[in-house]
Amino acid sequence: MNISNIPFSHRVDDSNEVLEKKFDRFSERIRVAIPGIIQSFDADKQTVSVKAAIKERMSFHGEPFENIEIPELLEVPILLPRAGNFILTMPIASGDECLLVFADNCYDSWWESGKISSQLDNRRHDLSDAFAIIGVWSQPKKIKDYSTDSTRLRNLDNSVYVEVEDTNINIIATDTVTVNANKVDITAKTINATGDSININGGNITASGDQVKIEGAASVNVDANSNTTIEGRNFLSHQHLNGGGTGLSGGVA
Q1: How far apart are CA 208 and CA 224, in angstroms?
Q2: In whole angstroms, what is the distance from residue 120 CA to residue 109 CA?
Q3: Which residue pairs, CB below 8 angstroms and at least 24 apart, start in 223-228?
Q4: Are 35 and 138 in contact (CB under 8 A)?
């Protein structure tokens, strides 16, 4: 007789079948992870309200299976890259997608105290114990112009970004790059500044080097010997016409 044609339930005794059904019911109660869609973000509590993106497929009392929408999950803690004294924050918005991960145990005590705590409830893999990992996305929200040879912190349309390549760092902006610090040090073999208008304002402005040269509508050059030339004329030895219009004055005293 070929037993492969005999249903599994007919090839085991009743105790094994009962055990199998118990395992099936147990597995249906275990939640691990599911994609979610954020409904709102509380920047003060740093929690989100989330709708599960996949409906539950359930059967009641032997009736046909139904697709049932999971109720909105409230005050779900978020997960962002954080360690030591640093964290990467992002403006979380309604409609963003995330991955809901369900803790093994009730974490309410830890959530309130931040310390090792006892469980307030004996629940496991419960909808109440979800975490939202920010940054999962579906195909309709896939990233355009994904860079495959650099790391970028960027906006979605890729018009503004900070990029780290193997040997270069690039900062691209459509409006303003602002640096606000007590001191800014720049060390490089060559420094180029190009713009329609370049303004330098400060209490004391010092420029030093083997040769300092400024070109434009007015050309000022200070060489290594501190000789200053303005529009091609030596500043210290240049002369003017005397007041009477005859003869030349001496150099700058």
Answers
A1: 9
A2: 7
A3: none
A4: yes
Report the distance separating Cα 108 and Cα 121, nearest Å.
Answer: 9
Give the bridge partners for 98, in sequence order: 36, 134
Q: Kindly state whether residue 251 falls inside one of the protein's structural domains.
A: no
CA distance 48 to 39: 7
Residue 116 sits in a domain whose CATH number is: 2.40.50.230
Q: How many domains does the chain have?
A: 2
Work out the number of other CB atoms within 10 angstroms of the CB of residue 192.
5
- Rounded to two decimals, the pTM is 0.73
Summarize pLDDT for 136-192 with one digit per residue, the tens: 999 999 999 999 999 999 999 999 999 999 999 999 999 999 999 999 999 999 999
Range of the domain at 237: 205-242
Both 109 and 9 in one domain: the answer is: yes
Query: Distance of CA 66 to CAs 57, 169, 187, Å?
Result: 6, 53, 66
Burial class (CB within 10 angstroms; exposed 0-12, middle 13-18, buried 19+) of 98: buried
